[in-house]
Design a protein that fits this description.
heterodimer, A: 252 residues, Sulfite Oxidase, Chain A, domain 2, 25% helix, B: 233 residues, Fumarate Reductase Cytochrome B subunit, two-stranded antiparallel ribbon, globular
């Protein structure tokens, strides 16, 4: 270690300078912190948190969307591993005034027309059953069993290929109270299904009867229950939880 | 005249003092996230000894219902935590500082002697260079822990794309608990670190800001300037 002999005065000077810089930087850090916290949220669907944080999340999103590999499949399990009692979390968009008898899935095409599909239209495509670890953004997870039609099959079969070239797909509940926006590569990942069954039986009401989204590459907040309308867009569709400060991408 | 010895290089002081607020933000925002599914505790024989965390603790720190905010801070400041840690490791490797930091053959045995000495249960401390054995062990462990936090964090942040990593760590839920345990580890480290800094005194703390250590007067006298007769003492 290097030794130096200096005068008492020089020592004091060096110490004072070092501590002054140290304290100034400390104060600067506090100002930066306060500045971040006081920045208003962006307007629109990317809301709910100070804009510098949102910018950070958007950078994260860019990075992980660029490196997203649809061929990496979500781990699946045998049916015996699935929970019998499936956790119910969230009931926004699940109002009691829902008329199940008259339900049809509306799909807004790029030309502005809306095509309607009955449950039979969806069920006539090949059925996929999958048991996977459903992950809630709150931090818990549960192995659950779902059955339905692959979203990619649905788009292909009903000639919605052109719509599938959009950057995003949006989905809304019939009462319009819950809504999600999903980047197209995640929506087209082969494990994404329009689910009409849970544990081998039709979806219970509180799990989104008659049709919900199961998208294993996302947190539960994107698995919208009771889909009413599907639409496509090159700009971000509205997203219920993104408006409340959550990550829009919420992908795994 | 005073004799000073260079102790902490400028880069190390930057890394250390940048890490301090950033780790604090990571732990705080992690707490905002953990609250939403606060399932951990220490149970012995069915009885819960420690609950992570009691409601009073959350209330005192204003933790509840801030999950979105917590995630936003966590996933922005993680980059600074990671980059600062990476630069620190690279610096210690390139500068050779690692030789003073990484435990050697005797460090594990000697660190107990250091602990006993610090608790006043042993008279002599083992010989040391810049860091004593206990410091070598704990300062190296904390880097390994930081690495562990990055890996466990990545595997619960992107459990599909990094599914192989999550499996390696025992699965998604296991990785989450490992991430939590590491954080508890930081808090314990922090407590001991602060106690040791207080125990070591102002001169030691000051050197972490100024970078140099002032050699005490009695040691100065030993190497008095040559033109003074030292034999007449």
């Amino acid at each position: 270690m290097k030794e130096t002999i200096i005068t008492e005065r020089k020592l004091t000077e060096k110490t004072v300078i070092a501590f002054t810089v140290f304290i100034l930087l400390f104060i600067a850090a506090i100002f930066v912190w306060k500045w971040i916290r006081n920045q208003p949220a962006e307007s629109g669907t990317l809301s709910g948190i100070p804009s510098p944080l949102r910018k950070g999340l958007t950078i994260d999103e860019k990075l992980f969307r660029a490196s997203f590999n649809p061929n990496v499949l979500v781990k699946t399990y045998p049916i015996s591993a699935a929970a019998k009692k499936v956790r119910v979390n969230g009931d926004v968009g699940m109002g009691n005034d829902f008329d199940a008898g008259n339900w049809k899935l509306g799909v807004v095409k790029d030309n502005g027309d809306t095509a309607f599909f009955s449950m039979d239209d969806i069920k006539k495509l090949p059925k996929t059953d999958e048991v996977f670890d459903f992950k809630c953004i709150e931090g818990w997870s549960q192995k659950t069993w779902w059955g339905g039609t692959k979203f990619s099959d649905f788009l292909k079969y009903y000639h919605l290929d052109k719509e599938a070239t959009n950057s995003f797909v949006g989905m809304i509940t019939p009462d319009k109270k819950y809504y999600v926006g999903i980047d197209m590569p995640s929506a087209l990942q082969t494990q994404t299904i329009l689910a009409y069954e849970m544990n081998g039986k039709p979806l219970p009401m509180d799990q989104g009867y008659p049709l919900r989204l199961i998208i294993p590459v996302k947190y539960g907040i994107k698995h919208i229950k009771r889909i009413g309308t599907i639409y496509f867009s090159n700009t971000r569709p509205r997203d219920y939880w993104a408006e409340r400060g959550y990550d829009y991408y919420s992908g795994h | 005249m005073k004799k000073i010895i260079k102790k902490h290089p400028l880069a190390l002081r930057w890394f250390h003092w940048i890490n301090f607020p950033i780790l604090a933000i990571m732990i705080w925002s992690g707490l905002l996230i953990y609250w939403a599914n606060d399932i951990y505790g220490v149970k012995i024989g069915g009885r819960e000894l420690i609950k992570f965390f009691p409601d009073s603790f959350y209330k005192a720190l204003n933790i509840p219902f801030r999950l979105a905010e917590g995630m936003a801070y966590h996933f922005v400041f993680m980059w600074l935590f990671f980059i600062n840690g990476l630069l620190y490791v690279l610096y210690t490797l390139i500068s050779g500082e690692w030789r003073l930091l990484v435990p050697n053959r005797n460090s594990f045995k000697e660190s107990w002697q250091v602990v006993l000495h610090d608790l006043h249960l042993r008279k002599e401390a083992p010989a040391q260079l810049k860091y004593n054995a206990a410091q070598r062990v704990s300062y190296s462990a904390i880097i390994v822990m930081g690495f562990g936090s990055v890996l466990t964090g990545l595997s619960i942040y992107k459990p599909v794309q990094f599914g192989w990593l999550a499996s390696l760590l025992g699965g998604y839920e296991m990785a989450r608990s490992e991430h939590f345990i590491l954080t508890i580890g930081y808090c314990l480290f922090f407590i001991v670190h602060i106690l040791q800094v207080i125990r070591a005194g102002w001169r030691n703390f000051s050197s972490m800001v100024t970078g140099f250590d002032v050699v005490p007067a009695e040691e100065n006298d030993v190497q008095a300037p040559a033109n003074l007769p030292s034999s007449n003492l």
